[in-house]
Write a structure and sequence with these properties.
Number of helices: 21
Distance between the termini: 105 Å
EC number: 2.1.1.-
Family: Belongs to the class V-like SAM-binding methyltransferase superfamily. Histone-lysine methyltransferase family. SETD6 subfamily.
Function: S-adenosyl-L-methionine-dependent protein-lysine N-methyltransferase that monomethylates 60S ribosomal protein L42.
Radius of gyration: 28 Å
Strand order of the largest sheet: 1-4-10-9
Helix content: 40-55%
Protein name: Ribosomal lysine N-methyltransferase 4
Largest sheet: 4 strands, antiparallel
Number of strands: 15
Subcellular location: Nucleus
């Protein structure tokens, strides 16, 4: 006798095939709940690179264009989109899914699909965490991006639209759209939806297949330039969509072995590398750290994401600068404004400012260049005892000389002793906030199975995030000493003084 989970999986696969989805006979759905991965797709035979895994007709996608809500109430979505002063994000799709799941129910053509989507209790995006559970993530900066207040505003906007709308079917079912239902639908969309594109050229609306970069490379520079010029005329319109089967794949930055290609009438999942028998088929959400994967999608990669990182905030750096140079906050704010608008810096960084609220330190020890530049410029500025008294013109000239010397030093992998001191202190002080010891660092994290209670699972995920961030900061702290040579500040300051004298030296007149 099959259990409910298996029965729903079998019904789901049958529905996919009846709905026109082509599935490779080398694949099957498997239950990986014991490994904390739920329902997934596994190869039962070896699969070659570029082999078709499955193909989904666009008619099976669920979005604001295909939903029965748009058929029954053609103006509803457009009216809702104009309802808010702010641009709406997922609210229209939430409305469509509410109509399909909670009003149409079994009458919806997607019902077998809805039966395999997770319930709210199975989801772990940070917006679902209780405040005491979020406390376990301190001092991670990810807490500033949870967005509970924005989600509450989205919910109120949707309720207000339904209450004031002309659609009695929606109004008569509004009690079904309680807070928990809204959270479940919104979290499912956040974790499972895709941005599906259509290519629009001039007046002719046509979708073409998205290709890997390798497919464009043929060694002919002229042909590549022509293709780039043609691509510039193409505008890609994205539609947030639920994509059955494609969203059944688990995601992993290190194990990704498939890619979803968009064509005019279908979406195709293609193997991007050989997949061996017994191996799971993985997609990826992009270049995201585990903290971001947890915030958005409610899971972590237990062997680490390629893009794990730690963060150091600008206020954190300012605290070190204030203590090191005995300078007041208003001076730092004034200098920040000047650094932010400095033309030399903007030119060096392609018009991007180096004044950032946070700097990311990656787990491979890659130190953010903007961070080093920011700190080095600052340490040169603050060693001028008259920095707070300089007029606008003199201050601008001194900043430009600091930028020139900073650029020259960092290009030679050199950093001044004072700047190195600030860098080390900023990283060390940030790491102390984590209160992590050596045992925590060496600890092996085992994925929590689905039968464990949600509090245990969330506590372990929080601990894993903190250790991942700490490790990234530690790697960068070690790397700065390995990758850069320290030089005495007086050498750089002497160069700046020489440059100042050169600026003052009168130019000789050319005799005619």
């Amino acid at each position: 006798m099959t259990d409910s989970f298996t029965e729903k999986s079998n019904t789901y696969v049958s529905w996919l095939e009846e709905s026109g989805v082509t599935i490779s006979p080398k694949l099957r759905l498997e239950d990986k709940r014991s490994e904390g991965q739920g329902r997934c797709v596994v190869a039962i035979e070896d699969i070659s690179e570029d082999e078709l895994l499955f193909e989904i007709p666009r008619s099976l996608l669920l979005n604001c264009e295909t939903s029965q809500l748009t058929t029954d109430f053609p103006k509803a979505v457009k009216q809702f989109e104009k309802y808010s002063d702010e641009p709406l994000s997922w609210e229209p799709l939430i409305l469509c899914m509410f109509y399909e799941i909670y009003i149409l129910q079994q009458k919806s053509k997607w019902w077998p699909y809805f039966c395999v989507l997770p319930e709210k209790e199975e989801l772990n995006g940070l917006v679902l965490w209780l405040d005491e559970e979020l406390d376990n993530l301190k001092p991670s900066y990810i807490l500033s991006s949870v967005g509970k207040e924005q989600v509450k505003n989205m919910y109120n906007t949707l309720l207000k639209f339904i209450e004031e709308s002309e659609y009695e079917t929606l109004k008569n079912n509004i009690e079904k759209l309680d807070w928990n239902t809204f959270l479940r639908i919104g979290s499912v969309i956040l974790a499972y939806s895709f941005d599906v594109g259509k290519e629009i050229t001039g007046q002719n609306t046509e979708s073409t297949e998205t290709k890997n970069a390798e497919e464009f490379s043929n060694g002919d520079d002229e042909e590549e330039e022509e293709e780039e010029e043609e691509e510039e005329d193409i505008e890609i319109e994205m539609t947030k969509s639920m994509v059955p089967l494609a969203d059944t794949l688990n995601a992993d930055t290190k194990k990704c072995n498939s890619n979803l290609l968009h064509s005019e009438k279908t979406l195709k999942m293609i193997a991007i590398k050989p997949i061996t028998k017994g191996e799971q088929v993985y997609n990826t959400y992009g270049e995201l750290s585990n903290a971001e994967l947890l915030r958005r999608y409610g899971f972590v990669e237990w062997d680490g994401s390629y893009y794990d990182c730690g963060e150091v905030s600008k206020p954190h750096i300012h605290r070190v600068l204030k203590k090191t140079f005995q300078v007041e906050t208003d001076i730092l704010n004034k200098l920040d404004d000047l650094i932010d608008k400095n033309e030399k810096i903007l030119d060096l960084f392609d018009e991007f400012s180096i004044v950032q609220e946070t700097f990311l330190f990656e787990s491979d020890g890659e130190i953010p260049f903007k961070f080093l530049f920011y700190v080095q410029v600052y340490t040169l500025l603050l060693q001028n005892p008259r920095i707070s008294k300089l007029g606008p013109i003199a201050l601008d000239k001194y900043l430009n000389r600091s930028v020139d010397e900073t650029s020259r030093a960092l290009q030679e992998n050199k950093i001044t002793e004072k700047a190195l001191e600030v860098v080390k202190l900023a990283l060390e002080n940030r790491m102390k906030e984590y209160e992590i010891n050596l045992d925590d660092i060496e600890k092996s994290f085992i994925p929590v199975s689905a039968d464990k209670d949600i509090k245990t699972k969330r506590k372990q995920m929080a601990e894993f995030i903190l250790v991942s961030e700490f490790k990234a900061l530690r790697e960068c702290s070690k790397a700065i000493l390995e990758k850069f040579d320290s030089i005495r500040d007086v050498e750089i300051l002497a160069n700046m003084k020489d440059a100042k004298n050169e600026e003052r030296r009168p130019k000789k007149r050319v005799r005619r």
